[in-house]
Specification:
Blueprint lengths: L8 H17 L11 E9 L11 E9 L10 E9 L5 H6 L9 E5 L2 H14 L1
Antiparallel strand pairs: 1-2, 2-3, 3-4
Length: 126
């Protein structure tokens, strides 16, 4: 990810939430007829790295507030993804520019539609 910053995780969360809402209005993010209010959250997973030099893993969660629920009801996690990378070859990290954060492993659990949205936003915006 080019110019990625761990200090901007809240900004990335807001951006992905807005992009997901826009796609939902087009009928692309969630099945037609769903009234779910989607919210994205980026956070770090500091324990998910092999060596001290490896970049911190990034967790992305998309949650929803089901319709007709109390305001105090907890959001449901409808999609989860992790960007991470552990390297056995330190030479790879040495040749990357300082502006690039390399997290080549992408694990996810959720719908393919939401996965496509996350891929698009991460590829274009982060």
């Amino acid at each position: 990810m080019h110019n990625f910053s761990y200090t901007r995780l809240k900004v990335y969360s807001k951006h992905l939430s807005a992009h997901t809402a826009a796609e939902k209005q087009k009928g692309l993010a969630i099945e037609v007829g769903s009234g779910l209010n989607l919210k994205a959250k980026f956070s770090c997973l500091p324990g998910l790295k092999g060596k001290d030099r490896d970049p911190l893993a990034v967790l992305i969660q998309i949650s929803s507030k089901p319709p007709l629920t109390k305001a105090s009801t907890e959001d449901w996690i409808v999609w989860t993804g992790w960007f991470c990378g552990t390297y056995t070859d330190d030479d790879l990290l040495e040749v990357l520019p300082k502006t690039v954060t390399c997290l080549p492993l992408f694990l996810y659990n959720g719908s393919e539609a939401l996965t496509a949205i996350v891929r698009t936003v991460v590829a274009k915006k982060l």
